[in-house]
Amino acid sequence: MAVLVVGGSGFLGRELVGQSLAAGHQVAATCLTQPPDLVGPAWHALDVRDRRQVADLVTAIEPDVVINAAYRKADWSSTADGAAHVALAAASAGARLVHVSSDAVFSGAAVRYDETSVPDPIAPYGAAKAAAETAVTAICPDAVIARTSLIIGDGGSVHEQRVRALATGRMSGVLFTDEVRCPVHVADLAAALLELASSDHAGIHHVAGADAVSRHELGTLIARRDGLDAAALPSGRRAGTDLPGPLDVRLDCTATRQRLRTELRGARQFLGH
Ligand SMILES: NC(=O)c1ccc[n+]([C@@H]2O[C@H](COP(=O)([O-])OP(=O)(O)OC[C@H]3O[C@@H](n4cnc5c(N)ncnc54)[C@H](OP(=O)(O)O)[C@@H]3O)[C@@H](O)[C@H]2O)c1
């Protein structure tokens, strides 16, 4: 299978590239700035905000599958317009599209959300991800849209780096006890996305971990795994702050799990408890 990973230089993108290569796929990948130190794929510079650039690259590569893991949290154009440009290019090349979305499309008012839940974003990032979903669905009705939650690895994610910095006093701030998500391991997520890519499933899928944990519990699990003093992690409540975004969002993945062979472990399991 010829796979194009858009945003291949990102945290999830690098895992997708690695697993695709290990599975024997022909892999091309994109970065916005600089290709990472990862040999194997053909690297291409790509700015998804440029519709023509995206179309030209996808036409030149002729991939069977495009997986879009590119985004920039504070940039509507990269996250929303860029997703539409990738969908247009995939549709015109006849490639299957797997688009990565987020639990940030939900407000948290309902706490638990399944694949039939309608987005009700309350912050700019969630609104851009919801707009991207709408564009992808309209342009590529057969695409998979995979909503996920906090992506954790074996040390390399931004979330793990922040916990280490907080636990060692290199950073100030707190981990919220009332902000709850269903973190997923990057290896499980990438495997699930590749499994969905080679299936004929379409539409919204929820691809998150089995455990709902607060940011503070997640930090504690990471600190313990890394041999750090979890008691040193500062805690606090997010409710009452003026930070934009939802408090408690739990992706119900029941329907997606029934379709997948890939196990989506919970944070308590993959972080060692
Ligand atoms: N991280 C999480 O906890 C989390 C949670 C829920 C959902 N998600 C979703 O998961 C996906 C991947 O997240 P991630 O954490 O792997 O992201 P990441 O590490 O920040 O990587 C983002 C990727 O997008 C690329 N990019 C940014 N702006 C671009 C542009 N204008 N044109 C082309 N490429 C651009 C970056 O390229 P450069 O490396 O060159 O800058 C990088 O390859 C995203 O769709 C995100 O919304 C993430």
- Indicate the percent of residues in helices: 25-40%
Q: Could you tell me the number of beta strands?
A: 15
- Distinct small molecules bound, one entry per kind: NADP nicotinamide-adenine-dinucleotide phosphate
How would you describe the shape? globular
The CATH superfamily of the largest domain is NAD(P)-binding Rossmann-like Domain
Beta-strand content bin: 15-25%
- For the record, what CATH class of the largest domain applies? Alpha Beta
- Lateral arrangement of strands in the main beta sheet: 3-2-1-4-5-7-12
- Biggest beta sheet attributes: 7 strands, parallel
Q: How many structural domains are formed by the residues? A: 2
Provide a count of the helices: 9
Head-to-tail CA distance between termini: 37 Å
User: SSE order, as H and E?
Assistant: EHEEHEHEEHEEHEEEHEEHEEHH
Structural class: alpha/beta
Q: Could you say what the CATH architecture of the largest domain is? A: 3-Layer(aba) Sandwich
User: Which parts are unreliable, with pLDDT below 50 for 5 consecutive residues or more?
Assistant: none
The radius of gyration is 18 Å
CATH fold title of the largest domain: Rossmann fold
Q: Give the integer mean of the pLDDT values.
A: 97
